[in-house]
Design goal:
276 residues, Jelly Rolls, Arc Repressor Mutant, subunit A, 5-stranded antiparallel β-sheet, 3-stranded antiparallel β-sheet, 9 helices, 8 strands, 20% strand, globular
Length: 276
């Protein structure tokens, strides 16, 4: 009897973290960039989110997906406690493209699947690293969680009830500024130039970035450049070509900036992370 191989359109390869937390009115997370996927499910309160160039305000029942190498930050945008679940994971498959930049409101089936994921996390108990501790030693628990997560991701990929980012005021200026950074990732443009093109003062631009990212404008732009370089290095690109691609025409200067951001040199990072 001949069996047809089943193609998996989303294949979970590993779980980095899985936890549910409650945070108070003044909670704010400083933000991060990493090279794996993250989903955030809001179960209580009003939550502000910065995701690359987008600024969103999310209510309970919302799921936000952060693709690899995307800056993201979360904060309490209301006057009551917030509760949210975070799952970070490594995955592959063509359906992942449908999750890029996706923010959706869950339907009843989605909420049911989310409750299933939260139940598995709670039953296995979080450790200090925010990963359910039994996942590290119980292969069955991990396998059950990955199967449930894949079902959830398939459902989210097909969900069209999207939450749209804010498109006015400071949020719109922030989006335009980050888009200009992406457009000029290979250049060493001045921050003043970005402010001039947006017809705002440099002081205003700095204030907006501090509000949404807790970073300086130049600091944020540099982080985008380094993440782009890391992605290229992981694909086997030379340090020289990666440096040129993100606007560094002096390889030594690039290596020094990379080490300040990442903690190790580009060559060390490439050896540890280059895909086979």
């Amino acid at each position: 009897m001949k069996f047809t191989e089943h193609k998996r359109y989303i294949d979970i390869k590993g779980i980095h973290s899985a936890f549910t937390v409650v945070r108070s009115e003044n909670y704010t997370f400083n933000g991060e960039i990493h090279d794996f996927w993250e989903l955030v499910y809001i179960s209580k309160g009003s939550v502000g989110v910065a995701a690359d160039s987008r600024i969103l305000k999310c209510s309970p029942g919302t799921v936000i997906f952060h693709k690899p190498n995307e800056f993201h930050r979360i904060w309490n945008a209301g006057k009551e406690d917030i509760e949210f679940t975070v799952i970070t994971f490594v995955a592959q498959g063509e359906y992942l493209a449908k999750l890029c930049d996706k923010v959706i409101h869950l339907d009843l089936n989605g909420l049911k699947l989310t409750n299933e994921l939260q139940k598995i996390i709670a039953e296995n108990g979080p450790d200090d690293a925010y990963t359910a501790q039994n996942f590290r030693k119980d292969g069955v628990a991990m396998a059950m969680f990955c199967v449930a997560l894949e079902r959830f991701l398939y459902m989210c990929a097909e969900n069209e009830n999207e939450v749209h980012p804010r498109t006015s005021g400071n949020a719109a200026i922030f989006t335009a500024a980050v888009n200009k950074m992406h457009e000029n990732i290979s250049q060493q443009i001045k921050i003043q130039q970005i402010a001039d093109e947006l017809h705002i003062s440099l002081t205003q631009l700095k204030r907006i970035f501090k509000k949404y990212t807790l970073k300086g404008v130049h600091e944020y732009f540099l982080a985008l450049k380094i993440e782009q370089a890391k992605a290229m290095l992981s694909e086997g690109c030379s340090i020289y070509n990666a440096a040129i691609a993100v606007g560094f025409y002096n390889q030594n200067y690039f290596s020094a900036a990379f080490k300040r951001e990442v903690g190790i040199t580009p060559s060390e990072w490439a050896r540890k992370n280059q895909r086979q």
